[in-house]
Amino acid sequence: MSRLASRRTFAAASSLLLAAVGLTGCLSLPGGAGGSNSSDISSMKNIPEGIKRDLINQMNSASGAEKSKIVDKANALNNMVGAQLVGVEPAIMGLQKYKLDTNGTVATNKDDSVYGLMSAADYWRLGEDSYDLCVEQNCEYYSSWTIDIEGSGSDLVYVWTLKIDNPDITDQPLVRRFKAGK
Known about the structure:
The N and C termini lie far apart (about 45 Å). Strand 4 and strand 5 form a beta hairpin. The protein has an eight-stranded antiparallel beta sheet with strand order 3-2-1-8-7-6-5-4. Helix content is about 30%, strand content about 20%. The N terminus is likely disordered. It is an alpha+beta fold. The protein is globular, with a radius of gyration of 16 Å.
């Protein structure tokens, strides 16, 4: 097994192991950091293209109040990049910091459990319909995460779900929850 494959296998195994332990315990991206609000979803640089298309399609068929919620979700996703996130769930990563920097790197303390729970990734990129966390800068080995939004304002929570295409690994999704930090 090559060194790269071993490292990827280790990262995946570590993530699954830490997830199980937690459950038993109860590249430069254009557009920079978010931090702004816009109603033009197509111009948001920190949202994967597939998700952006879905949001635009939802906007086209939504009414006034629904449109506002869709724009809020798009802004929250766009503004997540460059924002300090704080782990909420699973409890093992509670209050640990995690950040997708605008330069394509992940900023977190590698000694914190959140590092392993988030695929031991040092880099990230936008996938077609996911945020990909990468072991190396070239993203040869990566895990794909979808992100949804719960709540709003100071109660806003980012819900990360690991995309697993192999039901033999697990039939339960691996979910992480983060709040925007200060």
